[in-house]
Design brief:
single chain, mainly alpha, globular
């Protein structure tokens, strides 16, 4: 009934790409609120949603992609490589934010879609333009639906420390992350949200826990191991929890039992501080799916080839998908779209993201072919795996 991660030297774990690709597509659909198809994304069947899955997969990819340099003692080179990636995410966020502002402003000017502005946190640009323009490049002000990349970039900045702790002791890394998560929830530690009060919607100080678990899992894969091996009792417990969460969400039963007696980040569903029920749900879901042979074969099979390609080029796909989702929000605010029209719009957006991934894959392949003379050494699997992982 179970399967194990493929050992290094046998092949790349294609499930990571497939799961990350699925998460990206669900995020895109959820970022066009009000369409009928968002009812079929993962958030309707449990306590977590695609964001938790995406951050977990990203942590795994970081552990796989960057650990080699730190293991070899090349700490400065490893840090610079991680931080360059964080800089790339920052640029991608700023560019996509600028395009989104243009789309939203154009919608108001030409389509009278002013009702969209409060939903996407645009109104501070009109009410406090100078302060908000200071906050945008500082990442203290983020438009709605454009707040995942800033959190991911912040997590990348601290990744070298987490990788070094994980190389020393993977469970020690998880323990450190748990302590930070508890402190963030207990003292409500968050990054500032200037010029508005409050903090980031995706609080990196809390979300670092699921990211750190991903890094620990990636480091375990390098050593041909799993962070948590298969245990029948644990598998059954995870299935029970997933079933419980499914029933609770489907029947909209409200707050969990005894939630009022527990800290909000332990018994509640707060997304900003990554409440425990959400965290446990995505971990249980990951544990069950990665222990099912049928799921592993399906994810690695030809049916998921396109989705895996999307997952391999997650940054470009996510950035394009974010801009497209804002454009679709504006269009749907102006025109009363039917379910069929929503299907056409969402399908078109997904196809654009797939074509972007195909173009990047073909371009990368051509560059590698031009850079490697005939008869040159084939790259090792570790190099190939790291190169693929770092694309996301």
């Amino acid at each position: 009934m179970t399967t194990t991660l493929p050992p290094q030297g046998v092949g790349r774990d294609l499930r990571i790409d497939a799961f990350r690709g699925l998460a990206l597509l669900m995020i895109f659909i959820n970022h066009v609120p009000g369409n009928a198809f968002e009812n079929f994304t993962s958030r309707n069947f449990g306590f977590s949603d695609a964001a938790e899955a995406f951050v977990l997969m990203s942590g795994i990819a970081v552990g796989l992609a960057y650990a080699r340099l730190f293991r070899a003692g090349e700490y400065l080179r490893g840090c610079m490589r991680v931080w360059r990636r964080a800089g790339t995410l920052y640029v991608a966020h700023i560019v996509s934010t600028a395009i989104a502002i243009a789309i939203l402003a154009g919608g108001v000017v030409f389509l009278n879609t002013i009702d969209v502005l409060p939903r996407v946190n645009f109104t501070p640009l009109l009410e406090q333009p100078l302060k908000t323009m200071v906050g945008l490049p500082l990442l203290t002000h983020q438009l709605g639906y454009l707040n995942i990349l800033p959190m991911y970039a912040a997590l990348l900045v601290i990744s070298p420390v987490y990788i070094l702790i994980g190389l020393w002791n993977r469970l020690g890394l998880v323990a450190v992350a748990i302590v930070v998560w508890i402190m963030a929830g207990t003292f409500r530690i968050n990054l500032p949200n200037y010029p508005l009060p409050g903090g980031w919607f995706f609080n990196p100080v809390s979300w670092q826990l699921i990211y750190a678990i991903g890094i620990a899992g990636g480091l375990a894969m390098i050593h041909k191991r799993r962070l948590v091996g298969y245990h029948g009792w644990l598998f059954s417990a995870c299935l029970f929890y997933l079933g419980f969460a499914f029933v609770w969400v489907q029947f909209r039963l409200g707050a969990l039992p005894f939630a009022s007696y527990l800290p909000f980040y332990v018994g509640g569903m707060d997304k900003t501080f990554l409440a425990l029920p959400r965290l446990l749900h995505v971990l249980a879901l990951t544990y069950v799916l990665t222990n099912l042979v049928a799921v592993s074969r399906l994810m690695a099979g030809p049916a998921f080839r396109a989705i895996r390609l999307i997952g391999q080029h997650s940054l470009a796909v996510f950035t394009v998908g974010t801009v497209l989702s804002i454009a679709l929000q504006v269009l749907r605010a102006r025109f009363d779209t039917s379910a069929m029209e929503d299907a056409a719009l969402l399908t078109g957006g997904i196809l654009i993201q797939y074509w972007i991934a195909r173009f990047l894959a073909a371009t990368s392949e051509k560059k590698r072919g031009a850079a490697e003379p005939a008869g040159s050494r084939e790259p090792s699997l570790a190099d190939s795996r790291a190169r693929q992982a770092v694309r996301g």
